[in-house]
């Protein structure tokens, strides 16, 4: 480009003595890859019939985005939580919808982390950016779109060979490095696009990508003592403390500390393409395959320290002034001795060492979309048939070492430094002298009243430290301490999902040749889904027997850590080695090998988690039949869209209780339970676009949408059934159901409904600039929440908490979205600053909800509502989202700097336990590219340069952390180009 410019100016300057030959001239197009992508996205936005956001193909490849989730994170109103859950306008991922080329794609979850994981959320981290041509986020659904997206619909659009005039072959190769754990990896991609015959009636686009990488995450979790229900305001008849915000934030109540290290080796392969055929001038057919395969080998190690508060029976006082904390290396919470004994902390050093290994976690997704369109006079008929499926296999091995005996644990004192709340330290854990009655000997009594100002505690705190061979016993690192940590169990669990759906759809679009420019669209759709889930959990504990008893079966003493000295791994290096002093975990392979060598010396143990996991044993069928009518009417500067959509939903869910594996073969069988449901929803729509002057648009819309219940919520499971029939075999250490939270599904749940209002103003100026501002309001009814209700179960147990999903209550979400795109710095800035470009997005969201309070009524043997809880903010809803992209494209260089800021958000709201806050998160990503004369580019990308952690805090004490995870920085270097 520079050479061509000089040659053009030479004659006028009189500096060219001879004319350059054609062979001496070469041109290199302006390096404006990212800018072209921005311009394309702006044009898509301007021409759209809905309020939304767009990302063009060039924009996708020019930022450090590994997957679709990274790209979506840079759009106004969008926040991708934990890298895979797409929140739109503050609504969590399961309330939104993802489609590819306008059609849904099957997905199955692969986590076995307890209840609440089997949702309709789509994991967007599974789709690489190389597989997609562009993205549109639809926030005002028109009648021709599926209505199950309260927040919005993310539509991924793949490439078409007919969109190019000549053959295109593009490639990319990269090397990857993750800072945490020195993880390395690589990635490759290849895309082919061309017409396959001279008449250009047959076209093929084929894209293949693969990635192999290893990552390490370090994290910690903390738990504090549960607040009683009356403090949560759950019982309106009980006395209430002030709201959470009024509770002093200097009162941490630690109960448990977890230290975690997770290493993941991931391999991912994606294949997608389009085969297009122009049958005639009127008819075009296509075939679009999509295939994704991901396997992960994952190892987790954890050290857990429990019973820091010595208090499953802690009592909270009404008078806040009677509570005090003393900071002197370990905190102590005091109570009025007239009401309760002093609240003693950390006089039981219960330590778990855990390992978890997922040797081959496999996930597959596939879809085959066949369809076409035919022009019929002034109309167009479109038709498609989609076959989509997914599967997930997740096998897991794990172990736990514990100090299971209470009297055993009460012989230990933990040194606990809590002066740094976020990273408490544990210098040592030593054994204590105990009196015959099991109480600690004490020369200095516990303080019994308020202390203000806080007074330091005596260093020894009154206890006499015992020793072996004249040295204190260190629970963490000494061999004597290792002998106190006993093998509790070895567990094997399997999780398998299968999900298959087929979709048939036909639409007709007719244009009337009148001055009013009328378009009429109509269509129908049928979706049939079959889903199955299978889970098995087997747990084995050491069998004890005296020497020679039972023919020598069993262990004379429970195996402890000393048996695995040769199989110990290095200490957990989380947070720069801060916790290496906590000692080492045995390698998982060493423990499982020990089990298989001594399998006859273990017995099948019951576990409450197996009871809860039985909810994931089900078969499901869903059928959705939909039809719509849409009318587009243009009257001068105003475009009107109106219409209605109807969707009929039939569900058929079977809890496959008969397949739940019996801990003991002689236990009675459990019968399967089936439940069906049917409901119909109508979705009226009205929207308008007012084209004010040439470059100003005013949009308004009133729409309706729904979100169907999660799969797990609809399963008619009931742990009462398993408990009643199998009783003690669920938990040998607890012969009754006491302290076991029971649960059940709700197959009669209805879809959540939303009435949506949108108003937006857009101004387009210059070649690729845009300013837009919009406001929205969502009134959600019949929303689904998980509640815990106390119900009578009889006998000595009395009442027991029941966890169950319910419909009810109302939610209100209001927000503002502001977007500013500017690329005309060359009009007023000197070189080289004229290559700058700017994208600024801001979203502000507020929410509230009224949630009913249910109680069990014995007389009617059912739940009744006795009040309402009012809450601010919704689950997964940040109050503010900011993302800024600053680009510079000049000469042969292209630099992009992307900043993303998400305000704090609630991880859950009105949960059965604690409501927690995710801490604010600010991340910075960088991309640098240099282009050679042949068009090949080398690039360097850095993600999370600020090393921002993923953190959350307890809602009741915002300064007290609940979790803190470091993913670390990651870097990519490579090259890309086209042939």
Describe the structure.
The chain has 11 helices and 44 strands. By secondary structure, it is mainly β. The protein has a 22-stranded antiparallel beta barrel. Strands 1-6-7-4-5 form a 5-stranded mixed beta sheet. It has a 3-stranded mixed beta sheet with strand order 28-32-31, with no helix packed on it.
What coarse outline follows from CA principal-axis ratios? globular
Secondary structure: helix percent: under 10%
Measured distance between first and last alpha carbons: 20 Å
Class from helix and strand fractions: mainly beta
Oligomer: single chain
Q: Profile the largest sheet.
A: 22 strands, antiparallel, barrel
Please give the number of β-strands. 44
The gyration radius over C-alpha positions equals 32 Å
**Unreliable stretches, pLDDT < 50, 5 or more residues?**
1-30, 226-252, 310-347, 434-464, 730-739, 910-914
The helix tally amounts to 11
Task: Estimate the mean pLDDT confidence.
Answer: 78
% residues in beta strands: over 45%
In short:
By secondary structure, this protein is mainly β.
